Amino acid sequence: MTKIFSIAIGALVGSLLTWFKAYHRAEVIITGNKNLLVITTITSLLTICNCLAAYYGIIMNNRKVLTMCALALWPLFALTASVGYLAYKRQLWNLRAKLGSQWRSFSYNEKLTIQNNLHCCGFQGPLDHPAVSNKCYMRSLLPGCLGKYYRFNYLTLKIAYIVSFALLLPHLCLIFISVLFSNHVNDKWNRDPPPVVK
Question: One cellular component GO annotation, for this chain's record (predicted)?
Fold first, then answer.
């Protein structure tokens, strides 16, 4: 439980740093992969709450609380898997076309945010759906955003699905262990003296 709690704290800190734009490329993640960021934030918050409730159940020897925490691990498992699935699905099949479609659906401010952060202009060049600004105009020498945006998304999505899928096995082990403990906690748990060895 402590490992999952630590991982959830780390995921929440990473999500909050992204939401508050605490590092250089955070704006690109917020603009381009907001759905994954939202799911990651919600999953980490719910996991932290579930771990705290489980610690309460362990300290108070409360079987009902531990059972509810064991049941709550299944939807949390599904949320963790969904982050990996969405990232893998998006990264695997024709990411360039998906990014092009996404670029055309962006508002002016979203395009401008990505252009300013990646130091580029337009999607494939200054003539391809640019957000016109003092740095990005028709005869700008800045390259198109396709290359940088593609490489950034490819790496971000790959890290997201590898981390998400890597957490599934420990999560399943935790579910198995929590089911065992929730069924074996009663009023005498941890209070009886150990049996005498003959």
Answer: membrane
Structure-block tokens of residue 6: 């630590």
Structural domain includes residue 198 = no
| Residue 122, Ramachandran bin (φ over 0: left; ψ between -120 and 50: alpha; else beta) | left
> Per residue of the chain (198 residues), what is the pLDDT tens digit?
788 889 999 999 999 999 999 999 999 999 999 999 999 999 999 999 999 998 898 888 787 888 888 899 999 999 999 999 999 999 888 889 999 999 999 999 999 999 999 999 999 888 888 888 888 888 888 898 999 999 999 999 999 999 999 999 989 988 888 777 666 655 555 555 556 666
Does residue 73 contact residue 175 with C-beta atoms inside 8 Å?
A: yes
Domain contains 189? no
Within a domain: residue 190? no
Residues 36-50: b if buried by 16+ CB within 10 A, e if exposed: bbebbbebbeebbeb
Nearest to 115 by CA among 149, 65, 74: 149
Q: Is the residue at 197 inside a domain? A: no
Instruction: At 43, list the tokens.
Output: 């999953």
Cα(188)–Cα(24) distance, integer angstroms: 54
**Encoded tokens for 74:** 């299944």
* pTM given for the model: 0.84
Q: How many domains does the chain have?
A: 1
